[in-house]
Protein 1
Amino acid sequence: MDSHTYNIYKPLRATLEEVIEESPLIKTFVLTPDEEFVFKTGQFIELSVDGVGEAPFTPSSSPLVTDRLEVTVMKTGYVTGIMHELKPGAVMGIRGPYGRGYPVSEFEGKEVLILGGGCGLAPIRSLLFTLEHMKDDLEKVILCYGSKTPADCIYKPLFSRLNSIDKFEAHRTVDITDDDWDGPVGVATILLDNVKVKIDNSVAVVCGPPIMMKFGTIRLLEMGYRDEQIYLSMEKNMSCGLGKCGHCMMGEFFVCKDGPVFTYNEIKHNPEIWT
Amino acid sequence: MFYAGIRKEDWHRSLEKLLTTYDIFVPVKDEFSLDYEPFRPDQAERIVYNTPKPATPLKNFFLPVRENVTSSRAGSKPRIIIGVPNCDIEALMLLDEIYLDEVFADPWYRSRRNNTILVASDCYTVNDHCHCLSYGVKPWSMAHADMAILAEGDQIFLRVMSETGREIAEQLTDIYSVDDAAADSYAEKRHSEAEELLTALNAGLPDYTATGEIIQKAGDQIWEKYAAKCVSCGACTTICPTCSCFLLIDKPDFEKVKQMDACQYPGFERVAGGEDALFELHRRFRNRYMCKYVWRPQKFNSLACTGCGRCIEACIGKINKNELFMELT
């Protein structure tokens, strides 16, 4: 694209094709952008509701698909509340992709341990599609995921599918059980107690609510992971996505541009990362 | 770089001619303040050269308070901004880092930068709160502007510093050559006078190389103490030549309006889930200092303060950041 005519603020239009209810508070929006949309797994977009507002989301679909994009949205605030009311046929806006995604080429030859919580499974699903595509170059992929209740778990069919793929295994836990749940109960990190992983030849990926990111990182460090082996997907108020507006500053970093994926080693010097 | 001379009268006559091609802004003094105004040939005697400093920071010429950033618009007339103090020129260099970065250049900022000729002004005097020297910024420009102006009686010396500056100089009526060495020695005399005034005024201020460490080590007590007088009005950020944060506001038909914003306002970092790292006022207050003296230097290798002192003048709570620094050292 000609950098002299490209307007960094202008969204690309995308038609909402389908809305999938993932959980009581989470929906996946299937979009077809007006132009081919290329992104790297872990990069994020600003998704807008016309005239209302925009918010940052990491696509949950495969980066190998460029004519269709899936974005999983938890109803949390004003903009996401209105998004949840949208019906197929609506036109939405997309800016991006922004930031630094997962450096998947660095995962080659390694075991990838993924710790996810809540809506954090959205970016992880995109990562899993990517890892599945490159599974011949990976040793193992282990997903440990926690949701508040069994009903809050998103992409439920994903787990059985992952468990059927060679080299992949997926584990689930819930904070609060119900009558039908017979799996583990507790926060996502408890699943780490039973995983078999060669830490020296492994990387860990953490994506979820801030509290899980913090305690997940602490647990991984206790297990013996080194700071530079832990990849964190940081969550801040990314507003412009361009490293300018200042809303997502985390110490010296613009999370939108320098992240959102950082190794713990890159950001550990900053005491503000968990706030 | 070279010097040229022109009689003040001829300079103003030349500016009048240039008005057909350029919008021209000059520093004009009234009973309340000194600020940029559009050049009016019939009021040339109101222009004040070499005196710090226009109330409006230079950034306002490049980052309007509010603008639509998605609609195309007609190109604007090129501009000449005259009388820019070096604190503002140096601040613009940091804005360039952010707004003209290689990956995401802001097209509106870039177009204004390309469209603007900067005529700096060597400061002969100082204001109460000028402290550029403590940040390693000189009260005169030797680079980053197209020209610099030095007025002396009815004469004006122009330090021509860029190719664009040379092209403008060629369009001036009755411009004459001056001996560079003589002009240099005149400028140096003025510079050392200004430097002496600043050195006396800034006695006790920490050296800029130490400010980051001082701020980083400061405990909550100092932030709570100074923030007690802060009402989050954001005047310090509005008037700051380097503060450049903004908010994008959505308008129908996917248009976006960019509006200047600031970390001093409540909710600046609040996320939809409700977490707000800057919920408490003293955290917001501290954030501005951390940004200017620790984080921006780490990211861009440059302090985000050039010592213009406007934030001290603008604060309705009479918070003086220099007093804060002196208390910490």
Protein 2
Amino acid sequence: MLKNFFSGLGEDIKEIGTTFAEGDIKTRLSFLIFGLGPLLRGQIVKGLAYLAVQIALIWYVIAFGWNYLSKFSTLGTVVTHKENRITVYGDNSFLILLFGLLTIIAFIAFIFIWRENVRENYNEQNLLKEGKELPSNKKVLLSLLDSNFHKTLLALPVTGIFIFTVLPILFMICVAFTNYDKNHQSPTNLFTWVGLENFRQLFKFGSHGFGSTFLAVLGWTMVWAFFATFIDYFLGMAVAVMINKKGIRFKKLWRTILILTIAVPQIVSLLYISKMFATDGLVNGYLMKWGLIKSAIPFWKDPMLARIMIIVINIWIGIPYMMLIATGLLMNIPAELYESAKMDGANSVQMFRHITLPYMLFVTGPFLLTQFTGNLNNFNVIYLLNKGGPQSMRMAENAGRTDLLVTWLYKMTVNDTNYKMAAVIGIMVFLVTAITSLVVYNMLPSVKDEEGFQ
Amino acid sequence: MKRKEQIGNAIIYVVLVLMSIIWLFPFFGLIMQSFRSYDPKVEYGGMVDYIIPHKFSLDNYKFLFSGETNFLRWYGNTLTIAVCVSVFSTLIVLCVSYALSRMRFKGRKLLMRFWLILGMFPGFLTMICLYFLLKTFGLTQAGAVPGLILISVANSGMGYYVCKGYFDTLPRSLDEAALIDGASRARIFLTMVIPLSKPIIIYTALTAFMAPWCDYVFASYVAFGHDASYNVAVALQRWVVTNDYQGYFTRFCAGGILVAVPVTLLFMLLQKYYVEGVTGGAVKG
């Protein structure tokens, strides 16, 4: 891959060279002023577009970005302080980091657009050399609705995702390498680069390190995702098989009852269930009234019990979802398979094991994977039920015994404003998700052998 | 053989009935609690150890409509967000899906892979940065409602998988024939693909509509401290968790019912499309 990249780069540079060497004056001037070539050749629309982008980028960098980028290496040195009771604002590390990044991106964009601009000149010159005509301006504009329609369609989504996803993620990745926390809050205080210090802290064991907490939370996250995915998967499938069995009546009714858990917003149902199992809740109330227990069962206070509860309640949500999917897929299994199995004297358990299950595993492999990674980040169930509790003194940064990495990340951001460690955890979540996806994806039967079941 | 099958079916019925009871019980409880009275002589609004109210009344609902809290405002906020997000993000998803499914251009694979990787970062990671970005546009606290809409819509492009999967199944020969007839891509998109995509449009709009009702995390962060900008999720969560001991529990139940009923009805009405979307999405991954 790297080799491809470099050979590609080499060819690119060569092409740029020939463009300049063989270029006429219009092309050569375009190397400095974007879009000048197209403009002089009558390609007003394209020329103006290039020129506008160049002016905008340069204006941004000079008027705005450079100021921030120049302080990027320190993230600011002047602290906000008071002089004769008047507050003098110093550097704002947050802004320096954010706009510094934006300026770097602007530089990269500048290079890319410059390259596109050179290529445009090259193409136009070649066309003219061959004695062909350049497309009219109207045609260029109209192509945005036809051959270039994807540009029109994607312009807004890509911009939105850039501003509200890409830029923030880059920002937070940078934060993982700074000391941005409650003692270094901008704008009052500065924060600065600390290298790998935060990652060192994450893997440091002992009273001040995050090591043991991180491992505990990571371990539970994996255990949770595993159980939440597979228990729901198999039970949901079993329920679908039951409902679809010949001779079972009211199929629609059973399905509708189960689907209710998907329809009702989780914020309502999960909060209610969480309270149902509280120490002063309905379940404990009845159990005590009936004399089954003397004191309330600490469903949410006992770590082990809380974990089991969460997995069990998640079944309540997970089964209907899986049932829906399985119902659709079960109908696709060729009926002859079952008939011939029956002729051979197979019972229904055997048929499930040898026909239904392999088929379903094959078809739903990618789905299982997305379910698993979804569960790694299943914020709602954990947070609404129990807020990741019970808390433990032995865990760093108020982590609870049922906290997933994401809920821990959330707590650190909101309650403790420990942004640097939140960012580190975020990167860890990314790594866990990415590695799981990559490893599992390549093991999936439907990826290895696409025709396997056809 | 016949007898064996009957026993098997009987067992299945027992299991299904038991499951139905378990599945419906929380909703039954929720409805019952919401009708408890708020009369201090009879019972109070906190949690109790019985499920059938001592006295049925509409006290909790009256409270919600009384204007004592901003409940109606919160409800309106959530509805506004849900409708706007549903409309705009469906449009965006359709655009993205069409471009990625029906058109071939340089960087298409790269873009899809890049978005896939972006999706692996946890959403809450970027909360502080998003908060700041919104704040520069004046879209936090008092402006939280448009702010939340903006964020949801702006990022909705990455959720194109199910819709693209659907577009992939529409025969390409349709496009090719129309292209030969001289129709532009835009025309094909608007007059051929969109009318064929009713199920997936409804699925996308429905899921987009339902999400904001549950959005507690980001909504509470963006609207922090500004009561009038809350949505119902934030309000309900606050009633249950912080105001619990002031007897807000039955009020939460009533509020929950008011939230759940319309959303549930809508969902049940459009169930068919939801099932299609989910099943299609699961197979294609």
Protein 3
Amino acid sequence: MLLGADDVRRAISRIAHEIVERDRDLSSLAIIGIRSRGDVLAARLRDAIRANENATVPLGSLDITLYRDDLTRIGYAPIVHESALDFSVDDKVVVLVDDVLFTGRTIRAAMDALVDYGRPRAIRLAVLVDRGHRELPIRADFVGKNVPTKPSDDVRVHLTEVDGRDEVELIARERVSA
Amino acid sequence: MRWTRRHVLDTDDWSTEEIQAVLDTTGAMVEVLSRPVRRAPPLRGRTVVLFFAESSTRTRVSFELAARTLSADVVNISASGSSVEKGESLYDTVRTLQALGGDVVVMRHGSSGAPYFVSERTDAAVINAGDGWHAHPTQGLLDAYTLRAALGDLAKKRIVIVGDIVHSRVARSDINALVPLGATITLSGPPTLMPSAWRCGQTPAGTTYEPDLDRALDGADGVIALRLQKERQEGGLLPSLREYTRVWGLTEARVSLMRPGAPVMHPGPMNEGVEIDADVAHGARSLVERQVTNGVAVRMALLYLLVGTPTLEAS
């Protein structure tokens, strides 16, 4: 186990403070979670900011399936879910939220999707776990925990809202030789 | 559920899960169409061939918009002005399409079953955009999506389909999409425009025939009026258009026999004053324009779901 329920709670609380420290103008802030689980974390960050600062920032969720760069490789069409973004992102500081930062390809897709909604003043990235092994020049602004992993490992994030408990676990896998 | 179908020829053998997967994906596509930039990249670098051997503006434009919104390249081949008019066989047209390298062929044809013939002779994914009297699956799915968005769950909802059932691929595809979702269907219209077995009580599962439109509409949850082809009267199946309108035309008085707010739909183009009154066609219950918008989203959903087919994968 990498993170228990208390660790997850503390990480979210700390990131919520860091977000506000970095961009003090809450009126231009927006939080957008990447489905699925990034959207759950985004809602928790919004709630934490509301509790700390007594201000409600707009919350959205983004499904990046249509923007994946491996659609024609995987041999089937993954299910597309609806994105929910009912405010303008123009001139906002958008904090993208995801559970695990790995290759960076999901974040690339999310940024491509996001600019179809408008032109944010800045896009920042908050993740619960950064496990390394980037394949694109992308980094996170706010990180819950940095975890050294092997590329073949599996990092699984469980969140109460979808999985019934808060926990992050590392499942070590030997690389399957071809 | 993992999508495995390679072609969209008819929905008669689709599972409820498959229909639901299309409708759920359509919901996501409706959201894409509401964005400031109405474009997403999943079909980038793919070619969609629109092969319309029978005239159609709405369906063709709808498919074209759907393909372009998903970033595909679009090639149009219509019957008039093409080699089809010069006597080229369907087989030769298919071979040409194949050689052009289309990834998806969207086709409309006057002969029932033509898309099956094509699907067996090309590597491309084939989408049936209407074949003869047989099927128009994307219309059935967009009607199902529109009704589900308006009524919520379709279980135990009763929908009336009125008009020229026997010549209608729309009626057949509506039945195939709506019945698996739990709706029941009351068919209405002149007995001369009903398939003979259906007229005699042997209607498809989930449907019944009620020639009296007032009785059919009483307490219904929605109605779909079909386009009446004027040549049916010339063919002796109807005494006159006026009589048809008097007995089976949708009027304000008739549609108010349904539940309050029950929607009115029509696949278009409408003959206002024949199968539907102008007040009803443009009234508060009318979802006709919504059907057009949702049509683009349903076609995007299907084009997207076919992205996993082998040719698309290999190219």
